[in-house]
Amino acid sequence: MGLWAALLTFACVVWLAFRSANLYIAWRSTRKIFENASLREIAGVALPIFELQTPGANIFVAGVLRPRLLISRRTLELLDAAELQAAIRHELAHARSADNLKQTVVRFCGFPFLSSLDRAWLRAVEIGADERSATDALAAAELASALIKVGAESPAQAPELGMSLVPETDTPVSDRVQRLLAWQAGKRGRAARLTIGLLLLQITAVAANLSWLVPQMHRFTELLFQ
Hints:
Blueprint: H1 3-33, E1 37-39, E2 49-52, E3 59-62, E4 68-72, H2 73-78, H3 81-96, H4 99-108, H5 115-133, H6 137-152, E5 162-164, H7 173-181, H8 187-208, H9 210-225
Parallel strand pairs: 2-4
Antiparallel strand pairs: 1-2, 3-4, 3-5
Helix pairs in contact: 3-5, 3-6, 6-7
């Protein structure tokens, strides 16, 4: 093995150890949140629900393999029944899309000086959950109202490995509210078709250049391991 290959291998091992330790710390801090929570019954919700006793307003889904819904007592006091159901639908959209699992992968693959990419991903995920949970104009307005009320309060403790209704690094609440109030039927379908089209375009571009990419990768590995 050449010197550069050895250095690259060592750097990769150090990076994997650092990211694994980072995930473990985040997992431990997420577990501690449940120590200040108690089970609560809310009709029509499939996920286990925990009520947070800590001050502040927040609602979020925590847990990678077994998602659980956590709602602060202040949030239950702030939101009326329709707004609470809209907020819960938003969090259930995160759970159905396995966004906590995706967030774990994003956190593990994070690189220094690229935190803006993580924030952009989080903004896109929150907007996507808004669109999936707002099935009509009324539901969109109820979710917008919940966002305004929760966003105006001081946030309750949120887990590092969780999807909050109003994340600290999320796009401004006002932007999400404007999108929801401008809700249009069929908008989600057009966005999905655009995403699929861009993905197919990328796959086509890679396939068209595969004959060039394979020899280049072969030459690169030869340089490392010569």
